[in-house]
Amino acid sequence: MPSRRLLLLLLLVLPWPAAVAAADFVVVVNKENPVETLDRSEVKNIFLGKKTFWPNGQVIDVILQDEGEVHQGFVLEILRKTPAQFQLYWKLALFSGTGIPPDQQPDSQAVKAAIAANPKMIGYIDVQQLDDSVKKIELK
Amino acid sequence: MKRSLSTSSILLALLISPAATAPPCHAFDLGEYLSINGFLSQGYIDSHGNNYLGDSQDGSFQLNEFGLTLNSAVTDNFRLGMQLLSRDVGQEGDNDVLIDWAMADYRWQDWLGLRLGKVKLPIGLYNQGRDSDFLRPMVFLPQSIYDEGKRTLVVAAVGGSLYGNLSLGSSGDLEYQAYYGSVDFRSDSGQARGMALLAARIAKMKKLGAVNDLTADNRYVYGGSLIYTPPLAGLRAGVSYFAGESDFDFDVGTGQGEALGAMKDFVVLSMEYSLQKMILVAEYTEQTGDREVLGFDVPDGRSQGGYVQLCYHALERLGVSAFYDVFYADKNDHDGSGLVAQGQPDFLGWRKDLGLGLHWEITSQWLAKAEYHVVDGAALQLAIFNPEGVERYWNYVVLKTSFNF
Prior knowledge:
The complex is a heterodimer of chains A (140) and B (405).
Chain A: H1 3-10, E1 25-29, E2 37-38, H2 40-47, E3 61-65, H3 69-79, H4 83-96, E4 103-105, H5 108-116, E5 121-126, E6 135-136, E7 138-139
Parallel strand pairs in A: 2-7, 3-4, 3-5
Antiparallel strand pairs in A: 1-5, 1-6
Chain B: H1 2-15, E1 28-29, E2 35-48, E3 63-75, E4 78-89, E5 97-109, E6 112-120, H2 151-154, E7 156-167, E8 173-182, H3 190-205, E9 211-229, E10 235-252, E11 255-274, E12 278-293, E13 296-297, E14 302-315, E15 318-328, H4 337-341, E16 350-361, E17 366-376, E18 393-404
């Protein structure tokens, strides 16, 4: 096996990224949304694209957060996946034509702003960032 | 080979360029209505004992894919999408750019959606993502189920599919897909080359002359899948079914010849259990071949196969994987005695592949893999790549890297 070819591929080595700690989160929707509570399994199915309609028939808009403590806490506890597994789940949907990954926002403030402007949207934010611009969903 | 090396060099250069080392980013999002994604993969395969997929005993860079994916959300529950795919996998693909899938997708309710166009086919847990290297821990999916030689017939079909998710309350949920359509064959596909080889052997037996200019025309494919997700976190179980039938026409001697090839009752049973650091997968399959070539009823049996695969993430971005994959051409003839009676080696009746691999998620978009396989047996049309004869024991090494955005 030519060593030059092997060397090219071995040059792909890079340092490891650091792991992040999980943080407490709350699931939130627009204040006009009549939904007050959701089963954890329903929330899981919403973020996996399996449940796509609110009870009133409107399509659910899902918003994610970029990788970080809040995102890690949410996907580990509710979706029972690591952030990498969750990302892979949506990449499979994207590249096999079975779905489009949800949009992402950089932090809880941006998620709140997006949800406050969209009655169909659901997301998760840092529990410390909860205020009356959005409505907290009670998880059963 | 010279042409493909040149293409490979370009792909490799792209993969190690500054763009590939940039911080993670997302698709090129052109507003609310169009997003563009894509991927590039380049591999190297070196085998000993037999050629695999192409001239791999000399070492080959003919192992690449690149795709460009366009999606447009026309309304909340109606979207248009398309993926262009170029691949060169040994003797197949030649880096021609083809439409991998292209569809209109309307989701009416959670339990019912409709896709029309060219749709990927759900066979086992991983067939729909088989062309995206970065979606799996090892370079090749287990060949007992995801046989590269049958890829063209099973990867996608022009037609339509129904799909949906049925909530079972506290018992979990059930995803289904059902499809009907037809497949475009290429002359370099495993099916076409396998049929050409078989037709030549039968023509020789009947003293009819040489076989040339084989063309394939798929009549239909249909099937479906069910995937059950129970309340137990990380577990899913599935069953899928596939059937298809194709016609083949060719010149033989100074006349015309024809053949019929069918794949019947291709069933896959699947189980995946995923924890934070580990994924355990087991799948089992049976399928029946039914071929008639130049009036000769080929004695195809019902094949049998399956594998167990374990992937463990020793570090956050470093995983080790191992699988043991077994395929028998005839479930009632595991020792190949029927082949011996036909004057062929018994080891054409099985393929047992022990694979060990490492995969490194360098970033969330950039992956590198290295793996080693030891194989006993030469089933699954290995003779196509080894016209001088096949060996029973062989092995191969694969290195591959992929980037996606």
